[in-house]
Amino acid sequence: MTDQSQPSTTRRGFLKAGLATGGAIAAGGAAQAAQEPDPLITEIQPWAQGLGDGVDATPYGLPIEYESDVIRRNVEWLTADTISSINFTPIHALDGTITPQGCAFERHHSGAIELRKEDYRLMINGLVDRPLIFTYADLERFPRENRVYFCECAANSGMEWAGAQLNGAQFTHGMIHNMEYSGVPLRTLLEEAGVKPEGKWVYVEGADASSNGRSIPLEKAMDDVLVAFKANGEALRKEHGYPVRLVVPGWEGNMWVKWLRRVEVTTQAIESREETSKYTDTLADGTSRKWTWVMDAKSVITSPSPQSPVTHGPGPLVITGLAWSGRGAITRVDVSIDGGKTWQIARLAQEGQDKALSRFYLDINWDGSEMFLQSRAIDSTGYVQPTKTQLREVRGLNSIYHNNGIQTWWVNANGEAENVEIS
Amino acid sequence: ALAQQFGLGRAALPEEIAAWDMDVAPDGTGLPAGSGSVEDGEMLFSENCAVCHGEFAEGVDNWPKLAGGDGTLDHDDPLKTVGSYWPYLSTVWDYVHRSMPFGGAQSLSTDEVYAITAYILYSNYLVDDDFVLSNENFLDVEMPNAGGFIVDDRDQSEAHFWTAEPCMENCKDTVEITMRAAVLDVTPEEVSEAEATAKAELKAAAEKQQT
What we know:
heterodimer; A: Sulfite Oxidase, Chain A, domain 2; globular; B: mainly alpha; 9 helices; MoCF_OxRdtse_dimer (chain A); oxidoreductase (chain A)
């Protein structure tokens, strides 16, 4: 008996039987008695008898086929084409905090370019004592740092400004990834060139056709910005800026310039397209905020969620999610199962890290009734993640970017979850 | 004290800096000498830009509209174009020069960029049809929304989000569903992409989401 459907049918039958006895699962907490022997145990399975793959089968592996739904997804109608577009990290299916690079979201303005290390050049120019050119090999000779940071697109959750629209945490909150970066502080490279006293800003741009030029104040450039060439231990993926990208901790993803080719020290902001036409946030009165660099404290329950429904019935339930803040570390996450009437303090998997994702858990005993799940992040500056209503009171509906409002999932008695807004 | 130097890298040559340092600042810093007319710009725009942006810069399908929308920024669905939204003409010149046409970037000469910029101004009713834009008169052009931007003020306008202790018990009496994503039904798994693109409300949403 190797038919894989057979055991799960048996388990479902068992679950129904358990439910029929009325509260047997919730009571006691002791393991349930099986009604018939499980053939997965009583029959010798092929993997327990034959042989698996040799070590030469997979020089560089991909996830097992049964995880084929844990992939980036595109929402075709969001943008005019797939070249200047976005896709989404499957955060509903991930755990922990490190995003696997292969399914970490992409956002390009003129596509993911292929740039060999041999062809790579980085220029430092402008208000410096010595305008310089570095090769990739040069960059590897500077003292290096390792840091974990989240990169969140400024437009993450942007489709939700006007109301509940996309049904899944991947789509509402998946323009984000969190990686361990290895690289050289931008400060080190700027000091190598010698910044002149008149220098107040840096203008950074990529090697791609869009260039994605952005202005960054010199204080930030000299603080924690990294010129990174490794992520999660290996070279950057092509789509994430191979061979070199900028890491701008806590700040909107657009500024994390990929395929970084030039850093210019200037007296003024360039006010490029990506900081005037785009990445400016229009308020209700028609004026717009510019230079909204920091990503505020935010969280989302990744499971249960619309793509990750409760399939096991009442009883023990793990509620889990992610929290992060561009202003510092996550110090606490509160979870509500009744739409914000009451809150419980969730458990952080580990102490919050500066400008990085935190994983939280709340373990409950679900009674099978409907829930309105919410999470609320608090960061080391005392900032408390606001509701969407609170955000709209200040900003109106047309900001596009920087939507960090509290997300609600409506979980019904069947365990299915839906993206809703509530009063 | 001087920071440590490692002696890595080499001096950038003037030709190299000139090739890559093309950015133009709002005060005109970086703008090369040259000029172009609305008339020339109309022809260039028709050849290089109109297939996506329309003959009158009004936009085709979901491609960006470069003209129109004046006075809509405080509306429900503001139309943000060069004329209605962009604060500086320098950005138009700089962005077109470096990154347009989409798929054929950096193919336009200095004078061609001046001409196309002049035509975009004309399409937004900001200059007359005999206008010639040059590095000399560049800063004379008034952009309607130049005063429409404020520097990030979240620390002040959203100071109330830094609340010492949020509510934990009896925070509200009732919870009612006011909006459901499944009703809107635009998530990829829920409907086929062909169906999704056919829906008019999606188009409206797409325009709003163009980032």
